[in-house]
Design brief:
The protein is of the alpha+beta class and 490 residues long. 19% of the residues lie in helices and 33% in strands. It has eight helices and 25 strands. The strands form five sheets. Strands 13, 16, 17, 18, 19, 20, 21, 22, 23 and 24 form a ten-stranded antiparallel beta sheet that branches. Strands 6, 7, 8, 9, 10 and 11 form a six-stranded antiparallel beta sheet that branches. Helix 4 runs antiparallel to helix 5 and helix 6 packs antiparallel against helix 7. The longest helix has 20 residues. 19% of the residues are buried. The N terminus is likely disordered.
Length: 490
C-alpha cells in the first residue's frame, strides 16, 4: 500500500524473500554527494514568492553573485571592445551579392541569376499552345446557339453537331437570354484549324441540365433532370403603418405585393385598413434540388380584418383571362369601357351634319380616327352576334355582352372574328379601315343598352360572373390547396 504521503506500507504484514540475499544500498559520498546536492537544489527560485525563506535567500545570494561576477568581468566604460567592420562591396562582387539577395519588389528589384542562351538551347519556331481551353459564353437576347459557339472558337461542323443534339433534347426557344454556357476546347493539329469541341454544359431549363462530351470523333449528349418542388410560398403578417412596407419586410417580392394591393383594392378600400389587420398571400414557387428558387405570380390574396371580416380572393383563369374570384367563386367587373382603338375622337355621339350626305343627322356612335390597319379591341367580353358587311357601316362586328349591352364596330378594313365566337375584353376583333360610307380610315364605335343607342362614354360595366359545376369544384379544390400551405414554409 501507499499512503497519501507516498510512503509504502505493508499494512501490518511482512514479506519474506526466499532464495535471494537482501543487499543494502550504499549512500553516495564525497564528490558524488556534492554533485547530487547541486543537481536537486534550485539555485534560481522565483524571488517574488516565499519571501524570507531559506530557498528565497539562496536565490537572492545566487542573483547577487551573478551581478557581482558580471561587474568584475566588465571591461568598463573606458575600455570599449574593438570590432572589425567588413569593407563595402563594389564592382563584380556587388553584382554577385545583389544577384543572390532578396530585395523589395516594390522598389523595382531585379535580383536573381540570369543565364544567356548557349549552344544547347534550341529556339522555338512558334509558341506552343495549351492542350485545352476552358471558357464561358453568354446566350444573348435574339442570339443563336450556333452563333454563340462559333464566336467562342468552335468550328462550324462541331457547332452544327452540338445544335442538332441540343435541339433534340429541348427547344432552342426555351433557352433564356443570359444563360451561361461552359465550353472546353481541345488540342488542334495546327493553328490553321479551329479547336475541336471537347465538352459543353449549360442550364437548358430550370429543371434540366444538358452537357456534351466528345466520345472519339463524335459528341454525346447527357441529360441531368433536376427535381423541382412546386410547393407555393405563403406569407402572412400585420398591415402595420404601411401594407406595402410590411409585406416587403415579410419577404414578399415587389410585383406580388403590387398585385395583392390591386386585388384587395377591387373589393375594399385600402385606406381603411387598420394596423391590426392581417394580410395573407400565397405566391407560386419552384425550388430546384440544386438550391435555386424561382418565385412566380401571386395566386391567393387574403385579408383578415380586426373587426372579424375576412376577404379571400384567388386568381383564376377563365375564357383565356385571369381574374380575381372570391371564395364562393364570384367576380365582379366594373368601370368605364376603354377606347377600343388607339387614336383620337373625330366625332362624338349626338346630332351632327353628315360629312357625306350633307344634312343634320343623329350620330349614334363615336368616330375614332386611327391609322389604316390599327388593331381594334373588344371593349367588353361578349359573343359575336354579327361579323360581315352591312350598309354604310362597311365591314362591321357586333358583340352581345351581359347586362343587355351590345357594342358595334364599323368601317373595318378586315374582320378578325366570326359569328358565334366568344371574345374577351381587349381581344383583337378587326383592323381599322374606311369601308362603307367613310371619308377616311377610322372606327365607328356604337353601344346599345336594352336595344337603344347610347353614348359610349356614359356606359359603365357592372357585371357578376359566378363559377359553377365542375369548374367551381376545381376552383374550391385549388383554393383549399393554397390555403393549406404552411406560412413561411421552405
Amino acid at each position: 500500500m501507499r499512503d497519501e504521503l507516498g510512503i509504502e506500507d505493508a499494512g501490518g504484514t511482512a514479506t519474506l524473500s526466499f532464495g535471494r540475499a537482501l543487499v543494502p544500498v550504499a549512500k553516495p559520498t564525497g564528490a558524488e554527494a556534492f554533485r547530487a546536492y547541486l543537481a536537486k537544489t534550485d539555485w534560481v527560485p522565483d524571488l517574488g514568492a516565499r519571501i524570507g525563506t531559506a530557498e528565497w535567500w539562496r536565490g537572492a545570494l545566487t542573483c547577487t553573485a551573478l551581478v557581482a561576477g558580471a561587474c568584475l568581468l566588465s571591461p568598463g566604460r573606458g575600455h570599449p571592445v574593438m570590432g572589425d567592420v567588413a569593407a563595402p562591396l563594389s564592382g563584380t562582387e556587388w553584382d554577385e551579392a545583389r544577384a543572390q539577395s532578396i530585395t523589395p519588389l516594390a522598389y523595382g528589384a531585379n535580383s536573381g541569376r540570369r543565364m544567356a542562351a548557349n549552344d544547347l538551347v534550341a529556339p522555338l519556331l512558334e509558341t506552343p499552345e495549351r492542350p485545352a481551353i476552358e471558357l464561358s459564353a453568354a446566350y444573348g437576347s435574339g442570339d443563336s446557339f450556333s452563333g454563340v459557339l462559333q464566336r467562342a472558337g468552335v468550328s462550324e461542323s462541331d457547332s452544327d453537331a452540338a445544335v442538332a443534339l441540343i435541339s433534340n433534347a429541348v427547344s432552342l426557344e426555351e433557352i433564356k437570354p443570359g444563360t451561361q454556357i461552359d465550353i472546353t476546347l481541345g488540342r488542334r493539329e495546327n493553328k490553321k484549324v479551329a479547336r475541336p469541341l471537347d465538352a459543353l454544359s449549360f442550364r437548358a431549363r430550370f429543371d434540366l441540365n444538358l452537357s456534351l462530351a466528345r466520345a472519339g470523333k463524335a459528341l454525346a449528349l447527357a441529360r441531368q433532370v433536376i427535381a423541382i418542388d412546386h410547393t407555393p410560398l405563403r406569407i402572412q403578417g400585420l398591415v402595420g403603418s404601411s401594407l406595402y412596407r410590411s409585406a416587403r419586410a415579410a419577404g414578399a417580392p415587389a410585383k406580388a405585393v403590387e398585385d395583392y394591393i390591386r386585388g384587395i383594392a377591387s373589393r375594399t378600400a385600402i385606406g381603411g385598413l387598420g394596423s391590426d389587420d392581417k394580410f395573407d398571400m400565397t405566391i407560386g414557387q419552384d425550388r430546384a434540388a440544386t438550391g435555386e428558387v424561382r418565385l412566380g405570380a401571386l395566386e391567393y390574396a387574403g385579408l383578415f380584418r380586426s373587426s372579424g371580416k375576412t376577404l379571400r380572393l384567388m386568381r383564376w383563369e377563365r375564357d383565356g383571362r385571369e381574374q380575381w374570384f372570391d371564395a364562393s367563386g364570384q367576380t365582379e367587373q366594373s368601370g368605364a369601357m376603354g377606347m377600343p382603338v388607339a387614336g383620337h375622337v373625330t366625332s362624338n355621339f349626338g346630332l351632327r351634319v353628315h360629312p357625306i350626305l350633307g344634312y343634320t343627322k343623329m350620330h349614334k356612335g363615336m368616330d375614332i380616327g386611327a391609322p389604316w390597319g390599327s388593331p381594334i379591341h373588344a371593349a367588353m367580353d361578349g359573343v359575336v352576334q354579327f361579323a360581315g358587311r352591312t350598309g354604310g357601316y362597311g365591314n362591321f362586328v357586333k358583340l352581345a355582352s351581359g347586362g343587355n349591352i351590345a357594342t358595334g364596330y364599323g368601317h373595318m378594313s378586315r374582320i378578325a372574328v366570326r359569328n358565334g365566337e366568344r371574345v374577351a375584353r381587349g381581344q383583337v376583333i378587326g383592323y381599322v379601315g374606311s369601308t362603307g360610307l367613310s371619308t377616311g380610315p377610322h372606327l365607328h364605335w356604337e353601344v346599345w343598352k336594352n336595344g337603344i343607342s347610347v353614348n359610349p362614354r356614359s356606359v359603365s360595366m357592372a357585371s357578376v360572373i359566378q363559377l359553377g359545376g365542375e369548374e367551381l369544384r376545381e376552383f374550391k379544390a385549388r383554393l383549399a390547396e393554397l390555403t393549406s400551405v404552411k406560412p413561411g414554409g421552405r
